Description:
With 493 residues, the chain is an alpha/beta fold. The protein has helices at 53-58, 68-73, 75-81, 91-103, 119-132, 160-172, 184-188, 216-230, 244-255, 302-317, 322-327, 359-369, 391-402, 418-426, 438-447, 477-488; strands at 6-7, 22-23, 25-27, 37-40, 63-66, 84-87, 109-114, 137-141, 144-147, 177-181, 199-202, 236-240, 259-264, 270-277, 282-288, 291-297, 340-344, 350-354, 377-381, 405-408, 433-434, 454-458, 465-468, 471-474.
Amino acid sequence: MGSRAVSLSSLGLTGRGGANPDITGIAVDSREVKEGTLFAAMPGSKVHGAEFIQYALRMGAAAVLTDAKGAAIAADLMADAGVAVVISDAPREALALTAALWFGAQPATMIAVTGTNGKTSVSTFVRQIWIEMGLSAVNLGTTGVEGAWSAPLAHTTPEPITLHRTLAKAAANGITHAAMEASSHGLDQRRLDGVTLRAAGFTNFTQDHLDYHATFDAYFDAKAGLFARVMPEGGTAVINIDDPKGVDMVAIAKARGCEVITVGRDGGDLHLTGQRFDATGQDLRFAWRGKTYQKRLELIGGFQAENVLLAAGLVIACGADPAEVFDTLPHLVTVRGRMQLAATRDNGAAVFVDYAHTPDAVATALKAMRPHVMGRLIAIVGAGGDRDRGKRPLMGQAAAENADMVIVTDDNPRSETPADIRAAVMAGAPEAMEVGDRAEAILRGVDALEAGDALLIAGKGHETGQTIGDDVLPFDDVEQASVAVAALDGRLA
Length: 493
Ligand SMILES: CC(=O)N[C@H]1[C@@H](OP(=O)(O)OP(=O)(O)OC[C@H]2O[C@@H](n3ccc(=O)[nH]c3=O)[C@H](O)[C@@H]2O)O[C@H](CO)[C@@H](O)[C@@H]1O[C@H](C)C(=O)N[C@@H](C)C(=O)N[C@H](CCC(=O)O)C(=O)O
Ligand SMILES: Nc1ncnc2c1ncn2[C@@H]1O[C@H](COP(=O)(O)OP(=O)(O)OP(=O)(O)O)[C@@H](O)[C@H]1O
Ligand SMILES: N[C@H](CCC[C@H](N)C(=O)O)C(=O)O
Ligand SMILES: [Mg+2]
């Protein structure tokens, strides 16, 4: 896209006083501004992006998109430079729409999923179903871009420039279908407002991210934005109505003029009526608008049935034949780091790795393992530093209430003192064993496994590093589980 130039107005923006320069690129970070760039100076959580307008002008910015506060911060500088200034009272939304116009293409059929837990799982299952149906599909989110085309991503919902650059590349690579995660940060910051969605899904709503959102209501409102604002009228909302907040989402989507597909155990258009568990998976019985189906799922965990049915609902919402969608379900495979069987001891005891990092997820993951396990359940749990502090004792409590033995360890302490985070988790699990070093905690957990037992290593899932201070040390729960099992069962050379 190097030498491309388009007018500011063709990006949907009007410069003050009618200014309409040619734009050769867009950037939200002044350090990425080049000659001809439109610099989006956004209000930040730490600093206003307008503080960097001076630098952007020196690098040759042709226009600045900002809010009234930003315009005031750099008024003299911008007047002196004669740069085009666009002032918006919704600058992040304007940036999202501009990024969509600049990059110009996205996979034709797109869905987004929000909710506290299950976004990565649902979007990955949507992608797997599409691929099973012969379509060229990807999912985008916490685990990057995966499927028929792949790329790394630093965020669950990337900021608009990265997002639309990625979507345009995916489209250029022949991707016609994409399922993305809508994080509450992403929705709050309008990161996906420029994406054209066919359908949107809601999984559940419990505690997380109260470090960022001021209240539970603010956190809910951010998520509700997917249905209240981002989804076009005429789109279809696919909503888990077992969660009380799902019922509120249905009302919000209907008020917006959206079609609604409800999914649930207690009822719904897609209604889970039966579930039978065994050591390697489960059989599901469900009804789609009154017609009954029975399908095998090679997945551990009762909640995965909810995720899979939500995913099926989303694919149906995009126009697929329901029977054809349900035929793909036996082919679905574990989402990386989500109830993933990592290793098995010689005595048959299994070690699972899961990304449970909220109180509800810890409880759900452990409860979900019970029907698959005859012996004891051992849990390894920790909480991240520089994140919601209120969830720490609740995560400990969720582990203590649902496992027979708990080991509290470190999970990305970041800038905090690891022992303080562990103490907060231990407050909810006073009987737990405390082992700061995660590798040692895994070794102890694996060592405790007797025949018929199972170990759940919670919190890091697919992650490949342990963040301590500013350092990211290589660490992979799946790998550590294998190493521990091999060492204890004498399989090491
Ligand atoms: C808390 C949060 O979401 N912050 C996002 C926000 O940054 P901010 O408001 O804090 O930015 P700031 O540091 O105050 O700077 C203000 C502005 O000045 C700009 N700037 C800054 C420095 C400079 O030299 N030049 C410059 O232009 C910045 O690009 C920014 O636009 O806007 C930035 C640009 O759009 C984002 O990159 C940044 O995400 C940061 C990196 C982040 O870590 N976000 C995480 C918490 C996040 O978004 N997580 C979610 C959810 C994960 C989950 O579900 O669990 C995700 O979707 O990944
Ligand atoms: N439907 C569900 N209900 C409750 N817990 C779930 C559900 N689906 C997944 N979980 C739990 O949440 C964890 C994270 O799942 P997943 O990665 O799919 O969620 P996410 O919403 O993408 O998380 P993130 O906020 O990190 O992006 C899983 O490892 C599991 O423990
Ligand atoms: N996206 C989540 C992931 C948390 C995973 C856990 N391992 C941690 O570091 O807290 C967050 O950043 O809050
Ligand atoms: Mg995710």
